[in-house]
Amino acid sequence: MAESAALQDPKVRIAAAALTLFTERGFDAVSVTEIARHADVAQPSIHYYFKTKRALWEAAMFELAGRLERASAPVRSMVAAIDCLSALKAACSVLIDRAADTPELGRVILAEGQAGGDRLDWLMRNVFSGMYYEFLELVEKCVDEGHIKPYPPYQILMLLHGAAVTNFNVAPMVSAVFGEDPQSEANVAAYRTMYLDVIFAGLALPASKPKKAKSGKARD
User: Fold this and answer.
1) What is the pLDDT of residue 133?
2) Which pTM does this prediction carry?
3) Which one-letter DSSP state was computed for residue 124?
């Protein structure tokens, strides 16, 4: 109900439309005219509320950040109360859920991560820095405590993130090729289970072998 009421606000509709179009096609490929049409507002309304296309893009990214924060906040308190390996698995589970219900996250990271430049710098300062660095600290702690193999932590992070989001970033392709909806509740649950099994089996350190008893001559 609250979300429906918010969408009656032209500024909210414009930001939501901009988020959809920017994450589907990228900043340069989207015009202000298209955003106005998608939001069902007159084009001057966009300039009234946001002044420039870049300001509108930033507002759309803040909208995305708000969605992620609202979804992730309850998890942080839970993660703080468990061991770091369980916390890392829980964080990965949440990442999969966020990628499934907010595919814009992975799309904007892919688009701006490939392009580089000022917009990526802005995203890392204002939207993604906390998410990435908190995740990285958790990976580093798991490596330091010997829970997972000592690969470079940033590479582990990129593996965890890429494997979590790609399936949902290319949902239309998955649907076209395999006839499956990766965002259905059943498929998200199955993917989460497979991800945790495969990824953490590969990262797990081999079980330590029991030490052999020293041989020696028995005394009389």
Assistant:
1) 85
2) 0.78
3) I
